[in-house]
Amino acid sequence: MEKAVKKKKKHRPYIWFMLPGLIFYCAFMIVPLIANFFLSFASWNGVGEISFVGLDNFTKLFMNPENASTYWNAFGNNIKFILCEYFIVVPIQVGTAYLLYSKIRWHKFFQAMFFLPYVLSTAVIAFFATIFFNASFGIVNKVLIALGVPRTAVPGWLADSNMAFPILVGLAIWSSAVIGMLIILSSMKGVSHETIEASMIDGAGRFKQFLYVILPDIGPGMTNVLVLDIIWGITLFDLPYMLAGTFGGADGTLDFVNMYFYRTAFGSGSASSLNIDLGYAATIGTVTFVFILIFTSLMNFALGKIKVWNE
């Protein structure tokens, strides 16, 4: 009994250290999440009375053809972005992390250079992208015209529905891939040197070491990267908003769920389109949160199965 009391007293200081962070998390994460859930069953313009409408907002989202088309187009763009993250960005992150882990020549310099784009704000990245890829005055088109390409044949880049999305993915890779790369690199550095040395004694080359020793051991780090990619892909807003405007371009090529949420919650930016409905916007947020939970749960389940099979 005395040992239990002493143990409880011993851990009590740690609770006090955790308390400020816990209060902050509850105040700015849990409480708004609960409030958003209840608001999704109401109608409110932000200043008047909050009126309960039941499932009307959900009906408005999924049964209204125009709203459903806008939401599923935006959600489809989010899914495409996540798939690009998984099949393009993650392999680049893993490959880059392994090169730095192998301590290639000037690896410290390259690590610093990879981190450089991350310190730039999204506004700066979007500004430079506009300077380079603007159809009228962009540097790329000016170079193409100077090389003899007819002015009528130069690409529209950000104004072209076939090119805008690849440009967005390229900018995302350049600006944010370093975080996942650093997570994977730190996981690689945690791999046991004894295991690697044993594989070298067995005659395993670098490729086999990577495939059969390093890759299975960095599972937790890879899981974190994949979960972060889902969250980032679903919550994407600032970069496409700055590149294509409130509606994600003329045909919605760069329209994402959070941009639709923003238009609904705060208006589209024009005086004629200030149809603010925070209840309907909260519904979009609630549905998106449910999708995030489903995707992350399925991914964790799949990764858990893969881990069991590997064992």
Automatic annotation (TrEMBL):
Keywords, sorted A to Z: Cell membrane, Membrane, Transmembrane, Transmembrane helix, Transport
Gene3D superfamilies per UniProt: MetI-like
Keyword Lipoprotein attached: no
Subcellular localization(s) per the UniProt record: Cell membrane
Domain ABC transmembrane type-1: 75-299
Any one GO CC term of the record: plasma membrane
GO biological process, alphabetically ordered: transmembrane transport
Lineage top rank: taxon: Bacteria
Membrane topology of the entry: Multi-pass membrane protein
Transmembrane segments: 14-39, 79-101, 113-133, 163-185, 210-234, 278-303
Alphabetized InterPro entries for the sequence: ABC_transporter_permease, MetI-like, MetI-like_sf
PROSITE patterns given in the database record: ABC_TM1
Family indicated by similarity: Belongs to the binding-protein-dependent transport system permease family.
Official protein name in the record: Sugar ABC transporter permease
Native organism: Candidatus Choladousia intestinavium
